[in-house]
Write a structure and sequence with these properties.
The protein has 107 residues and is mainly α. It is built from three helices and two strands. The protein is elongated. The N and C termini lie far apart (46 Å).
């Protein structure tokens, strides 16, 4: 079972570091885009702390849910695979968001 917690902590640390890196890009901006339309233009904005903390917070909730959802008879390998998959998806979502944010900030 400890492997599951390692995946969860590692994912959260990576997501937090990516958000901290993005924090250095945005400087003193008050609001950041949260979603883009098909035309590539932002459709709505959120305060910077919400925009940069959204995926790490969702990741923490999802990883905790996956970690506690295993049955008592499980050996933990299925949960570890699920945790690794969910972690990879969350990290990919964060990277995509930061790619779009960086593209928007550069112009």
């Amino acid at each position: 079972m400890p492997t599951v917690y390692v995946f969860a902590v590692l994912t959260f640390v990576i997501l937090s570091c990516l958000s901290a890196l993005a924090g250095s890009w945005v400087g003193d901006l008050d609001r950041l885009p949260m979603q883009w339309g098909l035309n590539g233009q932002p459709t709505w904005y959120a305060p910077t702390w919400i925009a940069l903390g959204f995926i790490p917070a969702i990741g923490l909730i999802v990883m905790a849910t996956v970690a506690v959802s295993h049955g008592s008879g499980d050996d933990g390998s299925a949960v570890a695979r699920n945790m690794a998959t969910v972690g990879a998806i969350l990290i990919a979502a964060e990277i995509f968001y930061l790619f779009m944010l960086r593209r928007h900030l550069i112009g």
